[in-house]
Amino acid sequence: MRLTFGDTRLLALAAGAIAVGVVLFLNASRKQRKRKKLPYKDESDTVYVVQIPRGKKVPSPSPFPIKLETYLRIAKIPYENVFARKFSSKGKIPWIRHRGKDVPDSQFAIEYLNEQFNVDLEAHLTKEERAMSRAFLKMVEENLYWALACYRFIHDDVRKADYPSVIPTWALLLFGRRIKKYAWGQGMGRHSVEEIFHITKLDFEAISDYLGDKKFLFGDKPCVADCAVFGMLVQVVFNQTYSPHNALIKNEFPNLERFCWTMRNAFWPDWDQILAA
Amino acid sequence: MGLRGSKPTFDDSSNVVYFIQIPLRGLRVPNLSPFPLKLETYLRMAKIPHESIMISTLSSKGKTPWIRHRGKDVADSQFCIEYLNKQFGVNLNEHLTKEQQAVSRAILKMVEENLYWVLVCYRWFFMNPKDMGLSQNIPSLIFAFIRRRVRKYANGQGMGRHSQEEIFHIGKLDLQALSNYLGEKKFLFGDQPSETDCSVFGMLAQFVFSNIESPHCALIKKEFPNLERYCHTMRNTFWPDWDQVLKGDASSTKL
After folding, report:
1. Average of per-residue pLDDT values in chain A
2. Cα(B241)–Cα(B178) distance, rounded to whole angstroms?
């Protein structure tokens, strides 16, 4: 069968399209492979902390990376931050990598690091204090977290909060829709704006009353619960300064702001230097 | 068991608190959900006259339990308690110091927002459905349907993203904290019970009395026996009619 000029042209076009497609695919794979290559040196003892990039007002818009980094600083464990939009096997940040092992979830990461580096920030606590430390940790991370997340993503405009500029607005809004769904399942999302504010106030009151005049929750030495409380409260005290929660702390629970400054000055003396420009 | 349920008739002129709970009377606990058990224990502790209605009508927030008092519906066990404290001039935490009240709230939240999800994940993902502890097994299609929704909720909340061993470990740390804080005391804060005892009892009773096949029950018996002792103390003090309630003999708690 003899090919006509039209057939040849069609074949050429098809070949060209396939060639372009192959080039685009190879390029995308190369970019993907480049993205996947993160700078781990698995033979060293360095702990790599994978988290989203710094904000302009707070080291992270999420409380958990701040909790984890504060713990690492208190425990004096050598670590290196890897700022990437790479989520853990559980779909969250932060997570750590150490000697080739990935550990997701900030609390599991801390338990792992306690074992690896023989650290126990609660060694000085009594049995009852350890129990109370756990209770405060869970209140802050499983209750207060949701109350503040509902405010940030559902009740208020999330674009007012301090987020790194690499995260596009559409991603924030999409994440906010997800938080709304999650909060409904968790329970907090079923309450009204006023009820959630009330719940937040009661949690603030509990932390404030327990802290009192003390330097840290349990005296002069910080523990993991202090890291969690700090990570959460800085979102109100330093990030969302326009929020009613910030006013509430200033008016009724000033020792919570004092606590944030104490933690920041003690463990983040480089706070201003590390923030995004 | 449709969740729409029927609307009962209330006498809104009386001072009686209508306590509406989902009909999940267990073989070994008055309700398989910890929150109705918490709220009813509170009503008994506070000696508030109440009438229990077991129907499948959920609250305006889609949950159980809820109350109706003088024509007002209040959803969420904790909001119910705050409402009733005000209405009836009750303060079960009066004898606590400021620090103890703070710890009371922290323990309440640890139990209801963390340990609760350990229980939920155990019951819906890891437990043999026949061990639910109901007089009739939940039909497997309905069980599968509910489990799908629970999985969505648990994943969103976070607990559902952990492995079975990790979830058990998290539960163990919570139980250890409760045990260490309780120590030798009769109730959480001493000889007098307080508000949070209602919640802790409501939750622990699920492991200690209902899910007796669970590794959590075995763990409590072996490593945290004071939690079992505590459950019996709460039960004997506030539920002397426990066995009758289970049989359905006690027309629950008209004071």
Report:
1. 93
2. 26
Give the per-residue pLDDT at A243: 98
Model pLDDT, residue B104: 98
pLDDT, average across residues A159-165? 94
CA A100 vs CA A44, A45, A47, A115, B162: distances in Å: 9, 10, 10, 16, 20
CB contact under 8 A, B109 and A191: no
Has this prediction a pTM greater than 0.95?
no
Taking an 8 Å cut-off on Cβ atoms, the answer to whether B161 and A90 are in contact is yes
Size of interface A-B (CB pairs under 8 A): 98
B251 pLDDT more than 70: no
Query: B156 — contact with chain A (CB < 8 Å)?
Result: yes
Residue A269's alpha-carbon distances to A70, A196, B186, in angstroms, are 11, 34, 46
**Of the candidates B63, B51, B95, B103, the residue with the CA atom closest to the CA atom of residue B190:** B95
Residue to mutate among A90, A136, A139, with most B CBs inside 10 A, is A139
Give the model's confidence band at A29: pLDDT under 50 very low, under 70 low, under 90 confident, else very high. Answer: low
B30 contacts B210 by C-beta, under 8 angstroms: no
**How close are the terminal C-alpha atoms of chain B, in Å?**
29
The Cα of A172 is separated from the nearest Cα of chain B by a number of Å equal to: 17
Q: CB distance from B79 to chain A under 8 Å?
A: yes
What pLDDT score was predicted for residue A3? 67
- Of residues A108, A127, A134, nearest to B110 (C-beta): A134
Distance CA B65, CA B76 (A): 7
**Rounded average pLDDT over B169-177:** 98
Does the pLDDT of residue B253 top 90, yes or no?
no
What tokens were used for B94?
Answer: 């009066």
Mean pLDDT value of segment A133-150: 98
Residues in chain B with CB shorter than 8 Å from the CB of A127 are 180, 183
Q: What's the pLDDT score for residue A8? A: 85
Nearest CA in chain A to B105: A206
Q: Report chain A's C-alpha Rg in angstroms.
A: 24
Closest to B239 in 3D by CA, of B20, B17, B31 = B31
Helix (H) / strand (E) element for A174: namely: helix A169-186
